[in-house]
């Protein structure tokens, strides 16, 4: 079932729809409560009968064991059905919460890149945990509570009417007042709780960010600043929490005064009636027992209405996430019979993350299958953005990109992403074993030799075997902490195992020294050559790099500046032109020459020292 179609803007309606598949169980839970309530009321009626007709009446003494059995039976029924109702309610609420949790987890990872760019992680965590828990409580306590209150009220009211209708009416005068007061508080508690949850999300986010950035905090010695920042947010949460609590604590005494007064009035009126002989002592005793059970639901109705607001607010917050559009992964009408060939044509492509702020403008170039295209340019010039358009992480706003002559937008995202391997600029590794990280991108069982071959090609095999558990070493908090270069190499190995037709290396070797980079490239090339089937060849590679050495081997070099192509051509062509490329080349070769000179002179100094 797609939960999204069942949700509604009206929280109560949405919550009701969420119960689909569980309504029968819930009905069972509520009916069990009704039986339990009826049995308890039966106990009071039996007590009245016992006092009036059996106590002190010798002729009726033989029915004493029967009465005892009656009390016992009613107690057992009350106990069994209360238990049954609790179990059924728990099952309903846990199942609904579990389903919701699974759904939102899956949903979040299917939302668009743009949504994730704009949404804070802490906010999403908050909605998938604490808000879902509030919804769970709604079903475990409040929804079942509503049934319970309703049934208790009805059963006891009928019994009271049967006992004495005047007494019954006296006992429920308070109902309209309680309901009015509950709605008054309901609105205030809703607002206070919403504000509280929002602040809670801010706090989760602050904590999450601080933990992710703990190294930066330490490196800049900003602990005190961070602590104060947290303190401010925490104080805000405290004040909002206090406001929420104040609402609750105001509600309770007022409601207690109302219901307490009602109970006292009921007892007094009943007592007067008993003294005047209008009702029997047994009836009074039954009444005294039952009046508590009619006041209790009235009192709790208010509490319930107030508490329901929290479930509804949380549900609204969850709905906001669930109603976000997913990235349509299968949308697209073109899938080639074989794999893609890798001919890209960019025609006047423009792109903006936010309207009015173009990041790429009028990009036009084309490449043949199997070519290496290098993207070079200053930081922020749009290289990563350009690469992100290929797997359709983002949609270009203007112009056209075709792959093998077909508009990119016609390929389903899932298919395209299966064909393209991206080594991200800041690769992310999971807290799993190294082997699991390397084989992350594929569903099949990857043979050990293949994992090792990929690691060797990415020049990370030697580092891996030096870890105590080799390929079974855990990455991250509980295992080894990898260096930036090792992470990049593992990310490369992961992409090699995926065996994509099109490769994007986004600054993938920036943390790797030049020598290793050459090694990795040679290994990659060897790997491509060794492929046996012709379809298994790497078609087109996009390399993003800052080093001239990394890009000079490319068939086509695209120089970007402020989102526009300023130069395009092969290494030789670009060197022959005045422009950015030659400037970068000159600077880098000069720096390298100076470095080399220094290294040689240091070497010579060392030699002369050792020969002395
Ligand atoms: P790099 O990696 O530092 O060498 O720089 P590039 O060339 O990879 O730059 P890129 O494409 O990441 O960013 C180009 C511009 O777009 C830059 O001004 C930052 C902006 N930008 C990047 N990612 C996002 C995003 O997710 N949202 C928005 N609004 N802007 C973004
Ligand atoms: Mg980048």
Give a brief description.
It is built from 22 helices and 10 strands.
Give an account of the 3D structure.
The protein has 612 residues and is an alpha/beta fold. It has 2 domains: 3-322, ABC transporter type 1, transmembrane domain (ABC transporter transmembrane region fold, Up-down Bundle), CATH 1.20.1560.10; 344-581, P-loop containing nucleotide triphosphate hydrolases (Rossmann fold). Helix content is 64%, strand content 10%. It is built from 22 helices and 10 strands. It has helices at 3-6, 11-18, 23-54, 64-108, 113-118, 121-128, 130-163, 165-171, 175-212, 214-219, 223-275, 281-322, 383-389, 413-419, 434-438, 448-457, 461-466, 484-498, 514-530, 548-551, 571-575, 580-611; strands at 344-354, 357-367, 372-377, 398-403, 406-407, 420-423, 502-506, 540-544, 556-561, 564-569. A 6-stranded mixed beta sheet has the order 6-7-8-3-9-10, with helices on both faces. α3 (23-54) runs antiparallel to α12 (281-322), α7 (130-163) runs antiparallel to α12 (281-322) and α9 runs parallel beside α12 (281-322). The chain binds 2'-deoxyguanosine-5'-triphosphate and magnesium ion. Residues 383-384, 425, 506 line the site of magnesium ion (MG).
């Amino acid at each position: 079932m797609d939960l999204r179609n069942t949700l509604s803007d009206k929280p109560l309606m949405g919550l009701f729809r969420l119960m689909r598949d569980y309504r029968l169980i819930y009905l069972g839970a509520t009916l069990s409560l009704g039986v339990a309530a009826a049995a308890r009321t039966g106990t009071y009626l039996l007590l009245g009968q016992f006092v009036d007709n059996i106590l002190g009446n010798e002729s009726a003494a033989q029915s004493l064991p029967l009465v005892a059995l009656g009390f016992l039976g009613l107690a057992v029924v009350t106990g069994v059905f209360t238990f049954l109702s609790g179990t059924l309610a728990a099952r309903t609420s846990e199942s609904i919460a579990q389903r919701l949790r699974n759904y939102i987890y899956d949903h979040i990872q299917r939302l668009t890149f743009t949504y994730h760019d704009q949404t804070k992680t802490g906010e999403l965590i908050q909605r998938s945990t604490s808000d879902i828990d509030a919804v769970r409580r709604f079903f475990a306590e409040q929804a079942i509570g509503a049934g319970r209150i309703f049934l208790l009220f009805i059963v006891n009211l009928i019994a009271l009417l049967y006992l004495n209708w005047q007494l019954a009416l006296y006992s429920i005068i308070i109902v309209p007042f309680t309901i009015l007061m509950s709605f008054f508080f309901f609105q205030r508690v809703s607002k206070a709780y919403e504000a509280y949850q929002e602040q809670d999300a801010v706090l989760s986010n602050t904590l999450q960010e601080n933990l992710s950035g703990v190294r930066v905090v330490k490196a800049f010695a900003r602990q005190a600043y961070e602590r104060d920042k947290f303190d401010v947010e925490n104080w805000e949460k405290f004040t909002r929490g206090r406001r929420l609590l104040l609402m609750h604590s105001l509600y309770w005494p007022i409601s207690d005064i109302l219901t307490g007064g009602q109970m006292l009035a009921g007892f007094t009126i009943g007592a007067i009636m008993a003294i005047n002989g209008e009702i029997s002592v047994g009836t009074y005793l039954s009444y005294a027992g039952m009046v508590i059970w009619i006041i209790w639901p009235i009192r709790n109705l208010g509490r319930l209405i107030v508490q329901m607001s929290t479930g509804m607010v949380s549900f609204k917050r969850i709905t906001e996430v669930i109603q976000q559009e997913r990235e349509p992964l299968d949308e697209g009408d073109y899938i080639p019979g074989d794999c893609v060939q890798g001919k890209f044509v960019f025609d006047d492509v423009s792109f903006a993350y936010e309207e009015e702020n173009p990041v790429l403008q009028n990009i036009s170039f084309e490449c043949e299958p199997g070519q290496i295209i290098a993207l070079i340019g200053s930081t922020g010039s749009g290289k990563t953005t350009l690469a992100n358009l290929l797997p359709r992480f983002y949609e270009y706003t203007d112009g056209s990109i075709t792959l093998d002559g077909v508009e990119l937008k016609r390929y389903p995202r899932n298919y395209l992403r299966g064909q393209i391997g991206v080594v991200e600029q800041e690769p992310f590794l999971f807290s799993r074993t190294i082997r699991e990280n390397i084989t992350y991108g594929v569903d099949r069982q990857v043979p050990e030799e293949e994992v090792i071959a990929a690691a060797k090609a990415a020049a990370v095999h030697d580092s891996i075997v030096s870890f105590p558990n080799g390929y079974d070493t855990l990455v991250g908090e509980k295992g080894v902490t990898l260096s930036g270069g090792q992470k990049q190499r593992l990310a490369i190995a992961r992409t090699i195992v995926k065996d994509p037709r099109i490769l994007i290396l986004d600054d993938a070797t920036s943390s790797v020294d030049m020598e290793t980079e050459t090694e990795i490239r040679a290994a990659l090339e060897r790997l491509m050559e060794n492929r046996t089937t012709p379809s298994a060849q790497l078609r087109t590679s996009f390399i993003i790099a800052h080093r001239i050495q990394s890009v000079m081997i490319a068939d086509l070099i695209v120089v970007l500046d402020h989102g526009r192509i300023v130069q395009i051509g092969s290494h030789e062509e670009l060197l022959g032109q005045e422009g950015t490329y030659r400037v970068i080349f000159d600077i880098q070769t000069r720096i390298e020459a100076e470095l080399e000179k220094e290294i040689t002179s240091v070497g010579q100094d060392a030699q002369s020292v050792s020969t002395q």
